[in-house]
Amino acid sequence: MSDFDFDIDINELRERIKEDDNPKFEDDDTKFNPAKQMKVGDEAIVRVMPRYDNKHWSVEHIYHQLNGKGRFYTCPQQFDHTAKCPFCEKSKTYYDRGDTETGAKFWKKRRFGAFVRVKNAEELGLTNLDEPTVWWYGKTIESKFKAAIEDDEIGAFFHPIEGYDFKLRRGEKKDYPNYDSSDFARAKTKLHDNEKVIKALFEARHDLVEDIEPALSYEELSDILNGNSSVSEEDDREDAVENGTTARLPETKEEAKEDASTTDDDADLQALLAKINS
Ligand SMILES: [Zn+2]
Question: How far is the CA of 106 from the centre of ligand 1 (A)?
């Protein structure tokens, strides 16, 4: 027997190939992910629950992807708009040359995170969603939210008592998920009939900025861009899952539970609190 230590595991390699073919930012299904969880033709009744300490209805994430797909790399300009970023620089060299198509593949993109409650989650088969759940969405939806705020009739769509539900309709355009036909409901509704549940839902939110992965250093991002990365993708992915799913719950949920009075909504509230607690 040779003592040559041949340590390549073929099964591990196969797993790795599978992962590379299906890159994801995170793997958990406790968050709302319409592209993965909704079928063409589905309509989700979504209520947005912003955190006012952000003075915004959503949290913006500025990121890059290699060639415009796969893993998300937070742009160093997320937290410091003067920071140097190899992705931004590379993109600019293409734009300067007039190659806007390649430039766009490396340019920074924006997505927006908000806490939401999917009112018809059960009907859509989304029983794993956190309550409230996190939804990271793109520019189309964000512009619809912005337009609603400026609309005199709708305005504060996220108000828990006098707000409006957002009807998210999953369509498809050139094989890509498309949500263009989504719109706000035309009648005011409550976030939930039981105000104790509303309180518990609002208290269960955390600052979504905490979920954004910190930007890698200039050198690390350069290495990734040049294909010389020593960063372990696997570790990264685990971190992302961990960061994404950590629900930072307030201590007051126990109080809310004790406080629950015997109403018709009681079972509903207990179920919600159990879900929030789990
Ligand atoms: Zn950048």
Answer: 8
